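Check the record.
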Amino acid sequence: MSTLSNNTSLDAIYDVVVVGAGFAGLYALHSLRQRGLSVHGFEAGTGVGGTWFWNTYPGARCDVDSADYSYSFDDDLQQEWVWTERFPTQPEILRYLEHVADRFSLRDDITFDTRVNSAHFDETAGLWVITTDDDNTVTARWMIMATGALSAARIPQMDGQETFGGDVHHTADWPAGGVDFTGKRVGVIGTGSSGVQAIPIIAEQADHLTVFQRTPGFVIPARNRPLSPGELDDIKAQYPSRRALQRESHGGWILPPPAGMALEASPEVRDKEYESRWAAGGIAFQTTFGDLMFDAAANETAAEFVRSKIRETVSDPITAEALCPKGYPLGTKRLCIGTDYYETFNRDNVTLVDVRATPIERLDRGGIETTAELHELDMIVYATGFDALTGSLDGIDIRGRDNLALRDAWAAGPRTYLGVAVAGFPNMFTVTGPGSPSVLSNVVVSIEQHVEWVVDYIDHMRRTGARFTEATIAAQDEWANHVTGIAAESLYMQADSWYLGANIPGKPRIFLPYLGGVGNYRALCAQIADDDYRGFTTTI
């Protein structure tokens, strides 16, 4: 056991500490070990998986094709693993990550069931002092925050929550043994991606389901299906070119190219293209035409097509109209991919409550009371999402140079350099942080790029003898302005979305992810590295 100059007792000293054991944390551990560094990970869960460890609610699955939502760093791994469905379920993704952890013996370097409470930079020693919730303290020269962009669950505050007499669950913190809805009157609050996936399955089991909807979303059918062995073999044979396309693409996934511009096409051609993408299912609907995310009139043609499908599907016209999204462009809130979502509202045991028309006033022992009536419930499920991109970092007392708290540095909104570094926080790197493509991309593609870039930078520091490095304020400001400027040219700023932090009361409204695309971002990062890591200052 060692001590620093301030007599802090240390339980271990590492080259690098990695916080989190999802896709990002596991790859960071593996990559750092490959470079000969001593590394240790901390994970709050009792196992690996990150998002896919915690989000075990019914219907949980990814909206990126399984063959693409996977690591590319090891060809044997990608050739041997067998995906069973087009869009993988949470259990299948978790099995995959557990397999990766076992294959590369990564569990040996992870302390599970342990949260990092604080991380303070010791300027004299040039080390991070990291304290966990079991009162252990370790130091590391570098710290990588792989805490996940969507991992800090949000429960809205409502009057009377503590008085509700039934069971309460959040989709992001689901009981390990599952939940039995049989014979229960269930209320689901929230109709984002988690709600869209869970609602049809809960409706099949519950005695009655009441869905409390504030803002209807655009839900595109998934058209999920099993993958045939021959189909998966064909994909695997094309992996070299397929992975290259992912890395250079806008979103990190393989999508059909846009069919021109919506406003240049005739109504007949537009409808034909929309019908084709609707029938195919998945996120490709958002890129049917090249002007959908930049021209409001073009976007409205796609939005109205989806509304027409809702009206065709939902038999009750009042319910159908309440489910129709209005007031914001399609895609500016996360596009939801669902199975039988709209059809679920044709069931006799399902009620939709439009809480904009009849707001929730309070919860009481027996259920949820709106301005119109009391909805008697035995169980409430919060499908209310996350404090995206910053919430997991805000939950840790991170202090950099001059004891500056990250919470204070980001009080007016998060500012980063490339989404991987923060001025005033030497030798700290974030994976898929604010200012990176993160949630607007196939996150596994972004994770691999982030980790590889950071590990290469650490190697560069070791070769050049740099003790620590940090982003300059000027470079950070320039990047933040670049991120904001690109977003301002799109329609994304026209929606109160979690991309802007609008789902968290009091959170500054700043567009959080980088909209410039995965391929462009990768090229910019490569240019910065080639230019001796322009925008960073180092201390020898």
Q: What stands out?
A: The mean pLDDT is 95.
